[in-house]
Design brief:
Elements (H helix, E strand, L loop, with lengths): L2 H12 L38 H17 L7 H10 L2 E2 L5 E2 L2 H10 L4 E3 L8 E3 L5 E2 L7 E4 L4 E4 L2 H12 L6 E3 L10 H15 L3 E4 L7 H12 L2 H6 L3 E5 L10 H12 L4 E5 L2 E2 L7 H22 L5 E5 L2 E4 L4 E2 L4 H17 L4 E3 L10 H16 L4 E3 L4 E2 L4 E2 L1 H19 L11 H7 L10 H6 L15 H6 L5 H15 L6 H10 L6
Parallel strand pairs: 5-17, 6-19, 8-9, 9-10, 10-11, 11-13, 12-14, 16-17
Antiparallel strand pairs: 1-2, 3-4, 6-7, 14-15, 18-19
Helix pairs in contact: 2-10, 3-10, 4-10, 5-6, 6-7, 10-11, 11-12, 12-13, 13-17
């Protein structure tokens, strides 16, 4: 049997009785205020910088050169009109090229310091500087069952369940659509169920996508209903559009562009998503992959601001990596971590709110491979100061599978990553030797019960919810619980309590108007 099988076999045997096991955990009487929690959304990163200043300047120059000399093809007629009206040039070859001055002018008016609103204001995301937020994303077509080791088609209920889990996991700061509702055959109904499944499951900021421009109007009707009217929506737009407006290399995606134009005019924040794959739809050199991503998203900045100056948009340079031996995607690789961190540096160079992929695993299950892949890529994304770290938890098989238990495990992982982002607090108080004097000069000779230790126990140290820090003796006495056992128990506990977060009257109205698949 493989290592995976050996790990999962005891879990299969124990899954039914794992919830009652004891565990040593840190407890507090009440939740800490946000300003003293050891980790929280929006802490500034930026400590890790894989690109030199000269490298940043060279990537920027090459991106501008690519826009001037290569340009992008296949813009829809409306896009051609918008872009040429702003100063872009339509060539005889049908490609739209972007003069350097136009790009620089649009960068000057692009939105900065934007807020992605949530239905609950305490979950608002403030995208400025190097503030870091972790969340989900993706379009997995399977649900991973870590007990049976099976992959099955994902459903609207699965998407709703994932949203409910995210609503109750502190270190996951937003919920962007994680999977495809394979049980919803009609594409329009799928877009509506995807949007509503997210909204019904969480009060945090939601990201979604639309498969056809014709579906946008009904989806906004749903949004206005949830918000309490169009005016309320425009005051606090709590959903962003994940928009693949380009098809790398250097082509516009016509239908996505039309959707983008409509959503911007309706006040929806935009994720300008360029998702080339190094060695396939993007160049093999990591630096040149970043160049292409920058060029494509800079074209998006021009596009957005030509529609509406200062419209909220996220610079979504989202390049992936290929395993060059096979051409398959390798989202959990060190090269992926470098790509993401390099993109984050470029976002700060442009002083634009930015997002990219982190946390993808190529492993099929929440095993050791998934742990190191998700840990490394998320840690480097956070340390690089990436504003929006998408696909950070739950994603397996290079985005083909999503695992609810992995989502729960990922909450612990992201807590550790955010603790790295916070760094070491060096203050007069934290470096004073008075505590050392009290302990060493006639004191007990240890710091376990000192006032300083007790004061900092909950405000400077973070503790895992499912991670196991028992001694071998305690672990044996507790029945040798496995990590997966505890993840299953926590998942079941959350889902047993988490309900629909939409007002019941609004929920009834939406279900009468639209065919909603989940319960």
């Amino acid at each position: 049997m493989s290592d995976i099988g050996e790990v999962c076999e005891p879990a299969r045997a124990r899954a039914g009785r794992s919830g009652g096991r004891s565990a040593r955990v840190a407890m507090r009487a009440a939740p800490l205020a946000d300003d003293v929690r050891p980790v929280r959304a929006g802490m500034p990163g930026g400590q890790y910088k894989p690109l030199t200043e000269a490298g940043i300047a060279q990537i920027h120059e090459s991106a501008l050169q690519a826009l001037e000399e290569i340009g992008l093809s296949q813009a829809p007629p409306s896009g051609v009109e918008i872009l040429t009206g702003a100063g872009a040039v339509l060539g005889d070859d049908g490609r739209i090229r972007f003069p350097r001055a136009l790009v620089e002018d649009m960068l000057a008016v692009a939105a900065r310091g934007i807020t992605l609103h949530a239905r609950d204001p305490k979950h608002d995301l403030h995208l400025s500087g190097s503030n870091v937020h972790f969340g989900t994303a993706g379009a997995a077509v399977h649900i991973v069952d870590p007990i049976t080791l099976d992959y099955r088609e994902s459903t609207a209920q699965d998407l709703y369940d994932a949203a409910r889990l995210v609503d109750n996991l502190d270190n996951i700061h937003f919920y962007q659509r994680t999977m495809v509702c394979r049980d919803v055959v009609d594409n329009k109904e799928m877009d509506l169920n995807t949007l509503y499944g997210c909204l019904a499951g969480t009060r945090k900021h939601v990201g979604t996508s639309f498969s056809d421009p014709a579906h946008v109007a009904d989806c906004f009707e749903m949004l206005y209903t949830v918000a309490g009217g169009e005016d309320k929506w425009r005051e606090r737009p709590f959903v962003s559009n994940s928009n693949c407006f380009v098809v790398p290399p250097m082509k516009f995606a016509e239908e996505s562009c039309i959707t983008m134009e409509d959503c911007i005019r309706r006040g929806m924040p935009m994720l300008l998503l360029s998702a080339g794959q190094a060695g396939a739809t993007a160049p093999a050199p990591i630096a040149l992959t970043i160049v292409q991503a920058m060029a494509e998203c800079l074209a998006g900045v021009v596009y957005v601001n030509a529609i509406k100056r200062g419209a909220p948009a996220i610079f979504g340079t989202w390049p992936f990596v290929s395993d060059l031996r096979t051409g398959a995607m390798s989202g959990g690789s060190a090269e992926q971590a470098l790509l993401t961190a390099g993109c984050a540096q470029m976002h700060r160079f442009y002083d634009l709110p930015g997002g990219a992929a982190s946390g993808i695993s190529d492993s099929k299950l929440p095993d050791m491979q998934a742990g190191w892949e998700q840990g490394i890529t998320n840690a480097l994304a956070g340390l690089s100061g990436l504003n929006m770290c998408y696909e950070a938890v739950g994603m397996h098989a290079s985005l083909l599978g999503f695992c609810l238990e992995s989502l729960v495990l990922g909450d612990d992982l992201l807590g550790q990553a955010m603790r790295l982002v916070r760094g070491i607090d060096v203050t007069p108080d934290s470096t004073s030797i008075e505590a050392m004097k009290e302990v060493c000069l006639g004191g007990p000779g240890h710091y376990l019960g000192s006032d300083q230790t007790l004061k900092l126990m909950q405000t400077e140290y973070i503790y895992p919810k499912v991670g196991n820090r028992m001694s071998p003796k305690e672990w044996n006495e507790a029945g040798k619980p496995l990590l997966l056992d505890r993840a299953i128990a926590r998942k079941n506990e959350i889902l047993a309590k988490a309900g629909n977060v939409i007002d019941p009257e609004i929920d009834r109205a939406i279900r009468q108007r639209f065919n909603i698949y989940f319960k």
